[in-house]
Amino acid sequence: MRLFGSISTHHQPNSTTPFCSSSTISNSKSNLTSFQNNATITTNTTTSSTSLSSFNKSKLSWDRLKSGFEQCNSPKLGHKWMQYQGINHWEGLLDPLDDNLRREILRYGQFVEAAYKSFDFDPCSPTYATCRFPKNSLLTRCGLKNSGYKITKNLRATCGIRLPEWINKMYQLPHKQSSWIGYVAVCQDKEEIARLGRRDVVISLRGTSTCLEWLENLRATLTKIPNDMSNGSDHDNGGDDNCARAMVENGFLSLYVSKTTTNPSLQDMIREEITRIIQSYGDEPLSLTITGHSLGAALAILSAYDITTTIKNAPLVTVVSFGGPRVGNDVFRNQLEQSGTRILRIVNSDDVITRVPGFVAKDDDMASSGDVHVARLQSWFHKRVEDMQLVYADVGQELRLSSKESPYLTKGDVATCHDLKTYLQLVNGFVSSSCPYMNEMPEYQAEAWL
C-alpha cells in the first residue's frame, strides 16, 4: 500500500532507547563506519512549499543517499552470493546485521523506490496509472544510472473487481482496471555481474496506488490456489475439498491472475518474461530476486510461488519484501519452503500492515495454556476464524526493526511507519537486537512521494 508520510530528522536521541557505542560498533561491525561515511547526508534546510503534516516541515532527498551508495565501493560477493540470497536462510547474517547484506537490502529497496517514482499518481493526468518514463531511461531518471541493470519488461496488474457504472458516475472515482505496477530488469554490466558472482534478475513491484487496488486489498478471506499454480501436492488428496490445501488472500490473487481482452495478467507477463530470460541465460550462474513494498511484497511472494512451481529449471528465487502483509495459510507456507524459495521479510514492529489480514493462530500457544477453560476458548475461536477463512501464516525469515527503538525517528503515525523510506532508514541504522541502533547516524529524511 502506498501511504503518505515522512520522517523528521531534527530529533534528538531518546535517552531511554538502547543504542550502541562507537566501540561496540567497531568491534562487531568493522565496515559499518566506512559505509556510513561514504553515504553521509547533510540536512536540507530549505523549507518545502508543500505541507502535508508536521512531519513534512523539513525535508531531505533520498536521492542524496543513493548517490552516496554509488560512490562507495560495493563489496564483492563472489562465490558467497548464494549465502546473501538466502540459501542458508541468512543464518548468522541477520543478528547482528551483516554489512554486505545491509547493502544488498538497501540496493533492492532502491529498485522498489524506482517503481514508485515512475508511477503516475495524478488522477487528472491523461497518463494516470501508467509509467511516466520510457523503459530504456527509467532507471537513469530514478537515480540508478550506475546500477548495471537494464529493464526488459514493464509489468501491469489488472483488478478483478468491476464497479457498477452508477457508482462511477455518482462519486466520480478515478479508476483504472489495469495499472502499471513494476518491471523486470536484468543485470547486463560485466563488472557488476563479477561483483555479484552471477547474473541477477530483478522483479520490482510497487504498493497499492489506485482505488480498485485498495478495494482488492479489502478482500481478506482466503481462497484456493488455482490448479495451474499448484505444485500437484494439493491433488494428492483425491479431490477431497475437506483436506488442507494451499490458500492465499482473495484480493492479492485477483490482482495477480486477472486479465482483460486487451491486458494480459501479471501472472502471464511474469511467466513469459522469466521463461525467456532462463532460455537466454540459463547456461550461466543466475538468480531471481523479487522485491516489493506492501501490496508489491504480497505479489512478490505469489510470483515466487508461481515461478518455482510452474517454470522448469527456475534459478534460485529470493524475495526481499518491505512492509508486506500476510499472504496465505500454513499449507501455502510449507509448499513455499519445499520449493526452495527464500524469503526475507523486513518488518517494522510499529507497522500495522504487517499484522494483517486475518489472524495467525499457533497450536503451541493453545497447548501451553494452563487453564482448560482458556484453552477451550482459544480452540473455539481458532475454529471460528478458520471457518471464516482468516487463519494465515507468516512466511520466510524475518528482519524485525522498530521505529520506536530508533532514536533518530519521531514516533510517526500509521502512514509514516509503513512508508518505504522509513524501512530504508531503519535498515540503514540497524545493528542488532541487543543493541538496535548506532549512536551516530548520517542525517537524512525519508520523504513521501507526492
- The N- and C-terminal alpha carbons lie at a distance of 14 Å
Number of strands: 11
**Share of helical residues:** 25-40%
Q: How do the strands line up in the largest sheet? A: 2-3-4-7-8-9-10
CATH superfamily of the largest domain: Alpha/Beta hydrolase fold, catalytic domain
Low-confidence stretches: 1-17, 21-72, 365-369, 442-450
Strand content: 5-15%
Which CATH top level class of the largest domain fits? Alpha Beta
Helix-strand sequence: EHHHHHHEHEHEHEEHHEHEHEHHEHHE
Largest sheet: 7 strands, mixed
CATH fold field value of the largest domain: Rossmann fold
Which structural class best describes the helix and strand composition?
alpha/beta
Determine the number of helices (DSSP H or I, runs of at least 4 residues).
Answer: 17
CATH architecture name of the largest domain: 3-Layer(aba) Sandwich
Overall form: globular
Topology overview:
Layout: E1 19-20, H1 22-28, H2 32-38, H3 62-71, H4 81-84, H5 99-118, H6 138-141, E2 149-158, H7 165-171, E3 178-187, H8 190-196, E4 199-205, H9 211-217, E5 222-224, E6 247-249, H10 250-257, H11 266-281, E7 286-293, H12 295-310, E8 316-322, H13 330-339, E9 342-348, H14 363-367, H15 372-387, E10 397-401, H16 414-418, H17 420-429, E11 437-438
Parallel strand pairs: 1-11, 4-7, 7-8, 8-9, 9-10
Antiparallel strand pairs: 2-3, 3-4, 5-6
Describe this structure in words.
This protein has 450 residues and is α/β, with parallel strands linked by helices. It has two domains: 19-357 and 392-438, Rossmann fold, CATH 3.40.50; 361-391, no CATH class. Helix content is 35%, strand content 14%. It contains 17 helices and eleven strands. Helix 5 (99-118) runs antiparallel to helix 17 and helix 10 (250-257) crosses helix 12 (295-310). The longest helix is centred in the N-terminal third of the chain and has 20 residues, at 99-118. Mean pLDDT is 80; it is low at 1-17, 21-72, 365-369 and 442-450.
